[in-house]
Structures are given as C-alpha cells and as structure tokens.
Amino acid sequence: MNTSPVQYSSTLTEETLDLIAIALSQHGYIILENALPSKLVNNLLIAATEQAAQFKPAGVGRDDQHQLNNIIRTDSILWLTTSNPVESAYLIEMEALREAMNKRLFMGLFDYEASFAHYPSGAFYKKHLDAFKGQTNRVLTTVFYLNENWKKEQGGDLVIYDTKNDLSLQVKPEAGTLVVFLSDEFPHEVKPANKDRYSIAGWFRVNNSSLSRVDPAH
Ligand code: OGA
Ligand code: MN
Question: Are 158 and 190 in contact (CB under 8 A)?
Fold first, then answer.
C-alpha cells in the first residue's frame, strides 16, 4: 500500500495568474473572490481553530512595546509552517503566485512568510503600512479570508486606502477572498467585527543579502 502523502499542487490557473499580474501592474492591488478551492479554505479554518491555544498576541515584544501594540492592533497570530499539510497546501498556492509574479513582472520575490490572524469580536488593526519604502524587504502583501457566509453587518472590513486616486476600498472578509497589494503603497486597516474573524496575512520578500549580511539571518 502506498502511504506517502498526497502531493498537493497549486490550483491557480494561468488565466488567474495573468489577471493578478495585470491588476498589480495597472493598479498595484487586486481583490479576488473564490481564489482557492472551498475545501482548502474550510480546512484552513479548521487548522486555525484547532490550534487556538498556540495563537499569540500579535507583535509581542517588551512590555512597553506590547502596550503600544495594543493600541494599534488587538489580534492574535500563528505563523504557518510546512509541517502541517493544510498550511503547506496554502504555502504551495502562494509559491505558485510568487513564481508567476516573478515571471510576469520581474519582481524578484525571494520568499514568503504568512500567519493566521484571529480577531475576536471587537478586535482591530488600525491604519498602517506593511512596509516603508526602502526600509524593508517586504514588497507584496497577501491577505486571505476564512470566514464563511460573512454578513456585511458583522463588520470586520479590510479598508484599503488608495491615496494616489483618493479613494478607499472596503473588503468583506468572506471565505475564499484573496487580496494582493504592493506593501509600501497601500495603507490599510481592519475594522472591528461583532464575531470571530480569521485571515491569513502574508508577505513576499526580496532578498536583501549583501556581502556583509546574510539574509535570512539565523
Ligand atoms: C496585517 C493585516 C489584514 C486583514 O496583518 O498586516 O493588515 O484583513 N491584515 O486581516
Ligand atoms: Mn497589514
């Protein structure tokens, strides 16, 4: 009997990847509904809730930092790893996205890191940028939602500020919706919801290695 694990391969089609690349080059962002199979979305939600005890308040540092973080964000996070097959499946999808953007847009994306985020009722993440120009190697942000049948009145919108065009976009955190945007161009915030809200935030990075510094550092 063959007991080797089933090999997962990306479900993102060439057409979808073309669409993402075109949107990123024209607007710097895309909001894509039903981006991944609902079975995977559901398994990711199960994986997140099953590991509830492992989630840690986001950005925990020294005590004073922690206090400051509580003013900015009140969610808890858990980093995805390849040791969990469901998380691995998501990372395989993002690897396909990385390769496709490098091929189509020459972005030089080097690696990817992602974490589950749990926003309990009332939790928020105030307006912020994921990266500051020239100061980081995070260049492309992904946010993926795991909340089935989310109702508008339940809140929890992601608000993306398109400062160049002086407009803002409200994204409902509905299961299957994938948001991709340039990390240093779009301030965004998470509005409080009136129920538990789960997402996966991730960042593609460029390699900042130099002769004097090896990246990633261990
Ligand atoms: C983040 C973030 C958005 C969301 O973690 O940096 O902006 O909708 N998350 O969960
Ligand atoms: Mn963010």
Answer: yes
